[in-house]
Design goal:
This protein has a two-stranded antiparallel sheet with strand order 1-2. Among the domains are: about 530-655; about 670-755; about 765-855. It is globular and about 85 Å long. It starts with a helix and ends in a 12-residue tail after the last helix. About 70% of the residues lie in helices and about 0% in strands. By secondary structure, the protein is mostly helical. Helix 3 packs parallel to helix 5 (about 75-90), helix 6 crosses helix 8 and helix 31 (about 585-600) runs antiparallel to helix 32 (about 605-620). It is built from 45 helices and two strands.
């Protein structure tokens, strides 16, 4: 394994990457590989790029193979790694090792998710034993490791097993954590700078960031008694530690005003406000016993009121501050803090308007990277989509500020908020009218439109836009009087940000506008597609697709062609909506899509774009939709356009495209009602080789393609004997796998439907033995369901020779009285639990012949 560093260097160069990855894959299955890799990561004298590449490879092997069914890491290697990982994290405590440390911490998290605490009971004890009151270099590594283990709890579903793990952690980690939190806070509040470099102010503050994150982790599911008992020390004014941290801002840790990354004090404050938001949502009764929320609201006002903290580095803090206020308003428990008109006016003037207004760097972003600007501009704040606990949603300041207004409107303060906000909207529109020709006059209207959008919205979803509006605001009239004009205007006559605002307004309130209004703006939107800043739908669909394809085709590199997945998503949706009306020009459009696919396949960089372009091509291929439905002679044209490029992608081994290619081939093959072309038949032997089934992502496409072969070319499969190889795939590759067993049953059902029983008699017993072996060795609830459905399906389908007696006979040939055991232990208990869509199969399986009641 001495050549591993050279292999990682080679994997970083495009010319040698593929071969290096093959060699690394061969080495990765050798015993002791991961321990060797971990030692390489720890070698300080090794090339940094090699160490980082090795840490990423280490994480990916752990993630993919720790409990893999086919190539699992040997138990002896697992035991060795568990002893090595925590010391490794401590050894990587140097700030220069942060990038590598993150990968190792994530690896520990992956292992802990599967093995902790049952198969790794010493993990927390090892972390606790490593904590120090003086060496914060070690503390940072230990705390980040702990956070990586606890973080998944934030999104976990509440369950007894989850709380068992949390209680296990708290019993060992709770008290040491609280002691270290208080000790660390004391150092930071004292203002003294320790002489020991391992206890520098920066390291201590970095540890405090992790301590705050872990506080959230430990309370995200329930409030533990060990933390509830210390509530006053954290929350009660004026000396609660969390409140004191909101005012803590040592000059030496502030950073530069133009820094784009948040300072350590800013990170601490952001984490504390996330905790405060969590408590308001989940533990309001705990907060109501003291004036904690009122004190935090005052602290937030001091932090962000009047447009303070305008730097990019403070975006996260400002957004979270405003999100906390929105949550407090929505909770309804603190109405007295926000209900007066004076307070609402102060909120709008001092907090909302300054943060809704565009800043210089946002305007620069619009000019330099309009796609990223629009992506951020259209993202939804977490409050509109549920709790969002600990989600760290990438919400902008503007959205967070606007959400404060929406919270006021939706909390019974509609009239007061509308009155206050309308003044600012009117003032912004008037300022724009008076200063249209000035360089920055457009900014006033931008702020006004954004604020009006906020005050007009009561409820929204990402799929439908605004679903409920403020009855005091006429959005249709505002669109007609102030927005539509910007859509109509020539690009040179109005600032492009205002045109983006108009499109966003249209997108946001699309369910409120009439059909006629929406149709009237479609030609204008098509015109805007040709911008450098980004009738009946069936009549305008070709123009929309043509304009978007031209935009993509104008890209200079594969990366820029695939950069904007929204463009390809729009094409996909237009095709699906327009259907057969695209038939007259489908061939040209299909060739253009295939040409774009050829360009981006040189360097795939955007998985979403890849998905949408294949979905768009699939829309042209589908029998029951679009082109072929309108022109049955189109199939040869489609195959001629796609078969060659699909073969090239397979030959070039573009891994991320193979699953899509297989599904396209399955769709085209399924269209054939007569003789299957030889080109398809030539593929079948390749599909049945073990190598084709190595890539897990290809299995759904392979199953669909084999099902299409069985449905369209069964006679050739029988004469060639390939059905035996298909049965071997089911028995050896799919049924034994907990991940892929459903695909195995699906393929097996297709075999029973299309291969005569006479041909299966010599093999069906072996198949049933494989099914029963899996039932005996690694039964799951899902597998039992699939097994019962398959047996009843085999009894119910109308296939000559495949009768209930035949199926029962197969079981009895394996072991006398086996059928009655299967019936009693699996089929009868499972039958009443079958989903409604599957009950007809069970009812039609003639189980009544057994004399037992199924339903």
């Amino acid at each position: 394994m001495s050549d591993i560093p050279a292999l990682f260097l080679a994997s970083l160069a495009p010319a040698t990457r593929k071969q290096a990855e093959v060699n690394l894959q061969a080495l990765s299955v050798q015993p002791g590989f991961l321990s060797h890799l971990l030692r390489l990561v720890l070698e300080g004298g090794q090339d940094k790029s090699v160490r980082l590449a090795a840490s990423l490879y280490f994480k990916n092997v752990v993630k993919n193979r720790w409990d893999d069914e086919e190539a699992a890491i040997p138990e002896i290697d697992k035991a060795a790694l568990k002893n090595e990982l925590v010391p490794a994290m401590i050894a990587l405590s140097n700030p220069s090792d942060k990038a590598v440390r993150v990968q190792i911490a994530e690896s520990i998290s992956v292992i802990a998710t599967q093995d902790f605490p049952e198969r790794w009971p010493t993990l927390i004890d090892s972390l606790v034993a490593s904590l120090s009151h003086t060496n914060y270099s070690i503390n940072v590594g230990v705390l980040q490791t702990a956070h990586s283990i606890f973080y998944p709890w934030r999104a976990a579903t509440r369950s007894d097993s989850l709380f068992t793990v949390i209680n296990f952690v708290l019993s060992r980690f709770g008290e040491p954590f609280l002691q270290l939190f208080e000790h660390t806070a004391g150092i930071l509040f004292s203002g003294t700078t320790p002489a020991d470099p391992n206890g520098s102010l920066e390291l201590v503050a970095q540890a405090q960031v992790s301590l705050v994150e872990i506080f959230y982790d430990l309370t995200c599911q329930d409030l533990p008694p060990v933390i509830e008992d210390t509530h006053a020390r954290f929350f009660n004014p004026p000396d609660g530690m969390l409140l004191r941290f909101l005012a803590w801002d040592p000059e030496s840790l502030r950073g530069e005003p133009d820094d784009t990354t948040p300072s350590l004090p800013s990170q601490v404050k952001t984490g504390i406000l996330e905790i405060a938001e969590l408590y308001v949502k989940l533990y309001p009764e705990t907060l109501q016993n003291s004036p904690s929320v009122a004190a935090m609201v005052r602290s937030v006002w001091d932090l962000v009121g009047g447009g303070k903290r305008a730097g990019v580095g403070d975006d996260g803090l400002v957004s979270q501050s405003l999100r906390f206020i929105s949550t407090a308003i929505r909770s309804g428990h603190y109405k007295e803090l926000f209900s007066s008109k004076e307070t609402i006016s102060s909120l709008v003037q001092g907090v909302v308007v300054p943060n809704v207004a565009l800043r210089e760097h946002e305007i620069e972003q619009f000019e330099d990277d309009p796609l990223e600007y629009i992506r951020l501009d259209l993202s939804l704040p977490s409050s509109s989509g549920g709790l969002g606990l600990g989600s760290h949603d990438a919400v902008t300041r503007r959205q967070a500020a606007a959400d404060v207004v929406r919270a006021l409107v939706s909390s019974g303060l509609e009239a007061e908020t509308t009155e206050v906000a309308s003044v600012w909207v009117g003032q912004g529109l008037q300022d724009y009218a008076n200063n249209k020709t000035s360089e920055n006059g457009w900014r006033s209207k931008d702020t006004a439109v954004y604020l009006l959008t906020a005050v007009a919205t009561r409820g929204s979803t990402s799929q439908l836009g605004v679903t409920s509006t403020n009855k005091l605001v006429d959005v249709v009239q505002f669109f007609s009087e102030h927005v539509f004009q910007d859509l109509q205007a020539d690009a040179a006559s109005v600032h492009p940000v205002l045109q983006v605002d108009a499109i966003r307004f249209l997108h946001t309130f699309r369910t409120q506008l009439t059909k006629e209004q929406l149709l009237s703006v479609l030609p204008l939107l098509v015109r805007h597609l040709s911008s450098d800043n980004y009738p009946d739908i069936h009549e305008i669909a070709p123009q929309i697709i043509d304009a978007i394809l031209a935009k993509i085709e104008g890209a200079s590199t594969p990366e820029t062609a695939a950069e904007n997945d929204y463009l390809m998503k729009c094409i996909m949706r237009v095709i699906i909506t327009a259907r057969s009306s695209l038939a007259p020009g489908f061939e040209r459009t299909l060739h253009r899509l295939v040409a774009i696919l050829g360009v981006i396949s040189r360097n795939p960089s955007n998985p979403k774009f890849d998905q949408y372009i294949f979905e768009s091509i699939s829309a042209f291929v589908s029998l029951y939709r679009f082109v072929v439905g309108a022109n049955r002679n189109a199939l040869p044209t489609i195959e001629q356009a796609l078969f060659g490029p699909c073969t090239v992608l397979v030959r070039q081994d573009v891994e991320q495209y193979i699953p899509y290619v297989l599904q396209l081939l399955a769709q085209m093959l399924d269209m054939h009602t007569d003789t299957v072309p030889a080109a398809y038949r030539d593929l079948l032997p390749v599909l049945l080789t073990p190598a084709s089934w190595q890539q897990k992502g290809s299995i759904p496409g392979l199953v669909k393609l084999l099902k299409a072969f069985l449905a369209r070319d069964a006679s050739q499969i029988i004469s060639s004997g390939h059905y035996t190889a298909i049965l071997a795939v089911v028995q050896q590759r799919l049924i034994p796998s907990k991940i892929n067993d459903a695909w195995g049953f699906e393929l097996l059902q297709a075999v029973l439907q299309n291969i005569p029983v006479a041909n299966l008699k010599d093999y069906i017993r072996g198949v049933f033995v494989a099914l029963l072996t899996r039932m005996q060795t690694s039964k799951t609830d899902k597998y039992v369901y699939l097994f019962v459905y398959f047996i009843t399906f085999a009894m119910a389908i109308n296939v000559s020779g495949l009768t209930p007696d035949f199926v029962i006979g197969v079981f009895e040939s394996i072991q006398p009285q086996l059928w009655s055991q299967v019936l009693k232990n699996f089929i009868i208990p499972q039958a009443p639990q079958m989903l409604p869509k599957d009950r007809k199969v069970v009812a039609g399986s003639k189980l009544y012949g057994t004399g037992l009641t199924v339903f």
